[in-house]
Amino acid sequence: MNISGDFKAIEVAQDEGVLWLTMNRPDKLNSFNVEMHGEIRDVLARVQVSTDVRCLVITGAGRGFSAGQDLADLDMSALGDVVEQHYNPLLRTITSLKIPVIACVNGVAAGAAANLALACDIVLAARSAKFIQPFSQLGLVPDGGGTWTLPRLIGLARATALCMTAEPVSAERAEQWGMIWRCVDDQQLLSETSVLAHRLATQATTGLAFTKQLLRLSQTRTLDEQLDLERDYQQAASKTEDFAEGVDAFLNKRIPTFTGR
User: Are residues 19 and 148 in the same domain?
Assistant: First the structure.
C-alpha cells in the first residue's frame, strides 16, 4: 500500500518498508493545528492496515521537531475536548502500532510534541535539540501522556521539577538521564535514523510488536503477571512464519529474510 495524499500540514515518504512522517508547518515550528491532527490521523489509520510499512519515523521540517499546540488554533474554552479528540487518540495509536516507531527529534520538541516524541519506541535527537514541558507557564498541566511517561523514564523527582519549572532539557542530558535512546551530531541525525529504521524494518516485526506490547504492559503488572504474559506472547511468537524462518536461517548459517508474518 502506497501511503500518499495531498497533504498540507505534513509530508509523507516511503522508502523500502520505512514511512517517514514529517510535520510540515516550519513557519509555525510545526505546531499542531486541526488540519495537522487530521492528516496524521489519516496516515496512521492507513499504516495500521498496511503490510508494506514496517517502521515509522516521525520528524519535523525545518529547524525544529514541533512547538506543540498552535495556541492560535485552539478553542480556549474546551481544552479537555481538544485533548480527548486529538492528543489522546494520537498517543494511543502511536503506542499500540504493531511496528517500531522512531522519533527523529531535529530541534525543539515542546509540550505535547515532546511527549509524543517520548512515547515513541526509540528516540534519536540532534545534539542541538531540546525537550521542554512549558505547560506550567500557561497555567496548564502536561498532556500527551507526559505525566505517565516522564516519571517512568527519569523518575518522579526529575519529572516533577521539569513539569513545574519548564526548564529545557538538552539532548545530551536527555540521553544521560535515560529519557531518550541516543543524542547524535546534527549532521548525522537523518542518516543514523535512516540506518536504524531500515534495520528495524528488516527484522521480525511481529516479534518486535510483541516485545513492545510486553514492555508497555510491564508498567502495570506484577512480576508473576508479567511472567505469564511472556509465556503467552512467546507461544504466539513461536507460531509466526518469521520464527520458522529465523530457526531455519540459524541452522543453515544464513541471513534470515523476515516478512513480518
Answer: yes
